[in-house]
Amino acid sequence: MRRLINALLAFFLPAFVCLTVRAVEELPSWAIKAFNEKLSARYKLFQRMEPSFFAGDFNGDGRPDVALLIQERTTGKVGIAILGSGKNQFKILGAGQSFGNGGDDFSWMDLWSMRHSGKADQLYVGKREAASAVIYWDGSKYKWQQEGD
């Protein structure tokens, strides 16, 4: 039995590790640095959904930003971190921080995508056959707009 388990681990573990490393390596280096310096003590990357991040201009400042799926280490609550490039700024939505109708735990979410709209990109979040919402920048802060229940 032990040999079977070791054989299965030897077969499947390298593929899993490769996927995890590859997903992190696709992140821009500035985003990895910002996450490691500012957020990694409290949060970890949450890679249960694909993609696990989006690159876009979420605050309309003309610079690239990154939205990451994260999980709070102590509570396991899921959310989104939006990292702004060049300013070393970030915003946590969910993951222990209440935001809109999404609450403080986005573990209900089973889909998300990025939408291009006007000056700033938006995030679409939802649960299949249930609720959905758009997260957008209103010029001064991120807002939640419910789309369906």
Summarize the helices and strands and which ones pair or pack.
Layout: H1 2-25, H2 29-39, E1 43-45, E2 53-56, E3 65-72, E4 78-84, E5 89-94, E6 111-117, E7 120-126, E8 132-137, E9 142-148
Antiparallel strand pairs: 1-3, 2-3, 3-4, 4-5, 6-7, 7-8, 8-9
Please provide a written account of the structure:
With 149 residues, this protein is α+β, with helices and mostly antiparallel strands. Helix content is 23%, strand content 37%. It is built from 2 helices and 9 strands; from the N terminus they run H-H-E-E-E-E-E-E-E-E-E. It has helices at residues 2-25, 29-39; strands spanning 43-45, 53-56, 65-72, 78-84, 89-94, 111-117, 120-126, 132-137, 142-148. Strands 1, 2, 3, 4 and 5 form a 5-stranded antiparallel sheet that branches. The longest helix is centred in the first third of the chain and has 24 residues, at 2-25. The termini are far apart.
Q: Number of helix segments? A: 2
Assess the beta-strand content as a share of residues.
35-45%
Biggest sheet layout: 5 strands, antiparallel
**What is the approximate shape?**
globular
Secondary structural class: alpha+beta
Helix content, binned percent: 10-25%
Distance between the termini: 48 Å
Order of helices and strands: HHEEEEEEEEE
Mean of residue pLDDT?
84
Rounded to an integer in angstroms, the radius of gyration calculated over CA atoms is 17 Å
**Low-confidence segments, ≥5 residues, pLDDT <50?**
4-24
